[in-house]
Design the sequence.
């Protein structure tokens, strides 16, 4: 019998944020495919995920296998990684988690020339890929802790309403409250917020501060 849940591919899924998201979706019963520059490394990481359904391979194999593809690599590697898998993304949703951090001053908002890293991804990939921005404010530290409740709402931005809603549902499946937050251009607000959260983590000596929206129905 085929799995009714879509295959979620996570490019850079060997890392902190992608590994944490993959772990949450694997626990929720999703078939997860981790991607890496090194397929063997991703396969080994996939074997550590709960549920026994996770697979791993190189980023291209992951992009080909995924029905929804999630990108979790450093900003410096974002566009090169997307270029290397672009044909495999056609017709799919790409969930881009990239935050345009510029080390070493990662607690300072430093927006790219195009204002938003995720808008740059959409410009690169063209209209055949539905790029959705999400999870920029969710700490990997929290995602990787099986005992932690994610105390952070997820802002989901994208130009395709159905794709935005699909990612809201995916976030909810991973145990998060998530809300549609408008067109992809609005992603810049979520991307910028992350540097503020990093500042708060350092100033108040906590591992994973987050954001909460108020005045909205609880959709967790
Ligand atoms: N960490 C957080 O709490 C957090 C929270 C929100 C958003 N984010 C965002 O999520 C993204 C990933 O963050 P992270 O903390 O998970 O990063 P990370 O662990 O440092 O890196 C994630 C993965 O990216 C791949 N990678 C690293 N350098 C690369 C390169 N030069 N070219 C291609 N792939 C490369 C690596 O996979 P392989 O070596 O296996 O290829 C690595 O495991 C970033 O854009 C970050 O801003 C992170």
Sequence:
């Amino acid at each position: 019998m085929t799995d009714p849940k879509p295959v979620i591919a996570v490019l850079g899924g060997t890392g902190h944020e992608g590994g944490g998201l993959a772990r949450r979706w694997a626990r929720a019963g999703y078939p997860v495919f981790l991607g890496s520059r090194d397929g063997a490394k991703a396969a080994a990481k996939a074997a550590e995920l709960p549920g026994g359904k996770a697979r791993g391979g190189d980023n291209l194999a992951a992009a080909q296998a995924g029905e929804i593809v999630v990108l979790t690599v450093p900003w410096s590697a974002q566009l090169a990684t997307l270029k290397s898998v672009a044909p495999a993304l056609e017709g799919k949703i790409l969930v881009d988690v990239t935050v345009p951090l510029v080390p070493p001053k990662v607690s300072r908002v430093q927006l790219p020339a195009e204002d938003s890293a995720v808008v740059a991804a959409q410009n690169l990939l063209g209209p055949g890929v539905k790029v959705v921005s999400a999870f920029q404010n969710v700490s990997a530290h929290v995602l990787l802790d099986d005992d932690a409740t994610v105390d952070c709402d997820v802002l989901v931005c994208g130009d395709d309403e159905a794709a935005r809603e699909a990612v809201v549902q995916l976030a909810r499946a991973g145990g998060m409250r998530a809300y549609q937050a408008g067109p992809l251009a609005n992603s810049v607000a979520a991307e910028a917020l992350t540097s503020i959260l990093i500042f708060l983590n350092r100033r108040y000596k906590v591992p994973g501060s987050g954001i909460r929206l108020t005045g909205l129905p609880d959709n967790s």
